[in-house]
Amino acid sequence: MRAAYDTNVRLRPHLFVEHDRVLAERHPLASEDVHFSRALVAAVLEDLTRPGDRVLDPFAGYGTTLQVAEAMGRQAVGVELLPERCAAAAAAAPASLVLQGEARHLSLLVDGPFDLVLTSPPYMAEDDGPEDPLSGYNGASSYKKYLADLRDILAQCQDLLTPQGHVVVNVANIDSGAHFTPLAWDVGRLLSEVGRLTQDVFVCWDRSWHDLAGDYLLVARPQVARQQG
């Protein structure tokens, strides 16, 4: 077993991602905005988990996290709102558990503890329209409400961790040319409010991706008092 608090368990400081490889990996039903890479998932799993560890993705999408986790001998659970994506994730990772539901209700849908929560949430820019990305773009939201809802989801993720566990979020800032949204920095602030932010890992692309600016893996752990308790 790991020590109660092992500061040596850290993610590598940067990762390189190939644009064309991500395009080749993408599910045929996925939109152009889906850029979560299998290489990122594999690196996080290799650095922060061991075979047999439990891994959760609260925005499972087409099953990238589950597929890689399953191949690497981890026990994977995914929550996904849209039924067609649930079906795709289940097909990609048949030995994993895929649950249909809203990430807002995460603590009611899954049983912890997990050694790792790894995800890339649906993005929203400050100047986006009112559609709610956390509800499959149904219903109205705002950037302020989106961040508040995301904060609650991240708090639930922290509560589902083992004392030695990690939450890792792949998120980027958004630069449309007309407006810059510091989404990654806002999510980092949220993680520091609900847990203890420990790393920002640079995701380096060989070619620029759509309207993404800085791309990161943000790493958070439970508060020290909880670890020692």
Automatic annotation (TrEMBL):
Class of the enzyme per the UniProt entry, highest EC level: transferase
Alphabetical list of InterPro entries matching this protein: DNA_methylase_N4/N6, MeTrfase_CN4_CS, RM_Methyltransferase, SAM-dependent_MTases_sf
Catalysed reactions, semicolon-separated: a 2'-deoxycytidine in DNA + S-adenosyl-L-methionine = an N(4)-methyl-2'-deoxycytidine in DNA + S-adenosyl-L-homocysteine + H(+)
GO biological process, one term: methylation
Residue ranges annotated for the DNA methylase N-4/N-6 domain, each copy included: 35-89
Name of the featured protein: Methyltransferase
Species per Swiss-Prot/TrEMBL record: Tessaracoccus antarcticus
Protein family (similarity comment): Belongs to the N(4)/N(6)-methyltransferase family. N(4) subfamily.
GO MF terms held by the record: DNA binding; N-methyltransferase activity; site-specific DNA-methyltransferase (cytosine-N4-specific) activity
Keywords: DNA-binding, Methyltransferase, Restriction system, S-adenosyl-L-methionine, Transferase
Top-level taxonomic group: Bacteria
EC number per UniProt: 2.1.1.-
Pfam families: N6_N4_Mtase
Upper lineage: Bacteria, Bacillati, Actinomycetota, Actinomycetes, Propionibacteriales
